């Protein structure tokens, strides 16, 4: 899977307050090749789980970003993790006004 600029546009339209480092931070979502690679790494981590809904649901984005980094052996921002989860059909649930969130499976 290769995340495209069009994929990021879909996420940005659905989650307009999501930025590179989480909600409300460094808006808008970037479309540079480094960020697209981070989203790919996040999606690879999510897809690698035997049941992504169990692995992701109820977990915090910051925790999962670190798991994605260990899986991919590369840096993944919180925004890339959230964007990747959204593209894989897993919805973010905001934790108040902060940059973090948790996830609910929507498949």
Tell me roughly what share of residues is in helical segments: 40-55%
Number of helices: 5
Indicate the mean pLDDT.
91
By secondary-structure content and strand pairing, the structural class works out as alpha+beta
Coarse shape = globular
The radius of gyration is 12 Å
Separation of the first and last Cα atoms? 18 Å
Number of strands: 4
- Counted up, domains total 1
Quick description:
With 107 residues, the protein is α+β, with helices and mostly antiparallel strands.
How would you describe this protein?
This protein has 107 residues and is α+β, with helices and mostly antiparallel strands. The protein has one domain. Helices cover 50% and strands 13% of the residues. It has 5 helices and 4 strands. The strands form 2 sheets. The protein has a two-stranded antiparallel ribbon. Strands 3-4 form a two-stranded antiparallel ribbon. α2 (33-48) crosses α4 (61-72). The longest helix has 16 residues, at 33-48. It is globular, with a radius of gyration of 12 Å. The mean pLDDT is 91.
Summarize the helices and strands and which ones pair or pack.
Blueprint lengths: L4 H10 L3 E2 L2 E2 L9 H16 L3 H5 L4 H12 L5 H10 L2 E5 L6 E5 L2
Antiparallel strand pairs: 1-2, 3-4
Helix pairs in contact: 2-4, 2-5, 4-5
Keywords:
globular, 4 strands, 107 residues, single chain, two-stranded antiparallel sheet, 5 helices, alpha+beta
């Amino acid at each position: 899977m290769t995340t495209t600029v069009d994929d990021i546009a879909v996420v940005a339209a659905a989650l307009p307050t999501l930025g590179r480092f989480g909600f409300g931070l460094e808006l808008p979502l970037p479309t540079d090749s480094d960020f697209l690679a981070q989203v790919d790494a996040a999606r690879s981590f999510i897809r690698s789980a035997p049941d992504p809904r169990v692995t992701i649901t109820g977990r915090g984005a910051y925790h999962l970003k670190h798991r994605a980094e260990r899986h991919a052996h590369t840096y993944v921002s919180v925004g890339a993790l959230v964007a990747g989860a959204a593209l894989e059909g897993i919805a973010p649930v905001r934790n108040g006004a902060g940059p973090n969130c948790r996830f609910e499976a929507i498949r």
